[in-house]
Amino acid sequence: MRSPTAVASSEPANEERAVTPVRSIHIDCPFNAAVEALTSSGKILDEKIGLLSTRAGELPLLIAVQPYGSNKTALHIVIEGALDMYRGAAQIAAATWAEQIRRELESSLCIATESIAHQRASP
Question: Which end of the chain lies in a sparser environment, N or C, as judged by fewer CB atoms within 10 Å?
Answer without folding.
Answer: C
